[in-house]
Amino acid sequence: MRLKDKVTIITGAGHGIGRAYARRFAGEGAAVVIAEIDAPAGKAVEEEIRRGEGSAWSRPTDVTDFGSVQGLVEETVRRYGRIDVLLNNAAIYVTRPLTKGNLEDISIEEWDQLMEVNPKGVFLCCKAVIPIMKKQRSGKIINVASGTFFHGTGNMPHYTTSKGGVVAMTRVLAKQLGDWNINVNCLTPGSTMSEEVITDQVRARRDESSRQRAFKRIEVPEDITGTALFLASSDSDFMTGQLLVVDGGGIFH
Fold first, then answer.
1. How many angstroms from the chain centroid is the CA of residue 56?
2. How many angstroms separate the CA atoms of 64 and 57, rounded?
3. How confident is the model at residue 18 (pLDDT cuts 50, 70, 90)?
4. Which DSSP category does 192 fall into?
5. What pLDDT score was predicted for residue 30?
């Protein structure tokens, strides 16, 4: 087991790709902490993992509220004594409808909502966890960006900008935390079928993305979890500040 007894916080682990990360990490022996604003969804993933004899604990967490994040970190340390991995997965995208259009058509309120969750949520979670990892002189931080950052996808300027900020933060933190033996890397999925309700419209959008790839099929959450596992494990101990693209060959850079 590649993550045996590693204490791993995964934000947004109650749905979609986050749920897939939680299941894969638990299967590799991790003690998975499910930080999820949707408390029933987080509890359902916890129970699912426990039925499979994995280790999981869910805690309702709002990544935009530093008090909530700090409470999560403090309780995790009380329960487990340490934090080995932070996977910053929580973001606004699939779980909330987004306005698509030109920048001038995006409302200020929607822009602020995305910035509050996507880059600020990563900032607050890192801010709370870094002091623990510094004391341990070890840790893995995995951030999640988006292929829209490379493509400059034109119809979601707020989302694309928010994910570009996550890439920038990853590189700064890698430089700042190297002296404490803390790895900070970023994972970029492509367009992934992570919706819990699959409509014809959703499938058509995912099909369109798949036609732009070297591997011409729809990406699913399980296509991404192995790369996250690599970044969380000792296999990536001498790797930091890097961005791994997992999109079936849609981006070459």
1. 17
2. 20
3. very high
4. B
5. 98
Asked whether the beta carbons of 118 and 170 are under 8 A apart, the reply is no
| For residue 218, pLDDT beyond 60 | yes
| pLDDT in the model for residue 150 | 81
Q: Hey, what are 54's tokens?
A: 């994995």
Q: How far apart are CA 218 and CA 28, in angstroms?
A: 25
Q: What is the pTM of this model?
A: 0.93
Is 159 one of the annotated active-site residues of the chain? yes
Can you state the angle between helices 66-80 and 108-136, rounded to 10 degrees?
A: 30
Look up residue 97 and give its two tokens. 């409808």
Residue 202 lies in a domain: yes
The reply to whether 67 falls in a domain is yes
72-124 per-position pLDDT tens digit: 999 999 999 999 999 999 998 756 678 889 999 999 999 999 999 999 999 99
| pLDDT (0 to 100) of residue 206 | 64
Annotated catalytic residue within 21, 80, 93, 159: 159
Q: What is the CATH number of the domain that holds 227?
A: 3.40.50.720
End-to-end Cα distance, the chain:
33
The verdict on residue 253 lying in a domain is: no
Residue 2 maps to a domain? no
Residue 182 near residue 133 (C-beta atoms within 8 A): yes
Q: Which domain holds residue 129?
A: 7-246
Q: How many Å apart are CA 52 and CA 24, to the nearest integer?
A: 11
Q: How many domains does the chain have?
A: 1
Mean pLDDT across the chain: 92
Under DSSP, the state recorded for 57 is: E
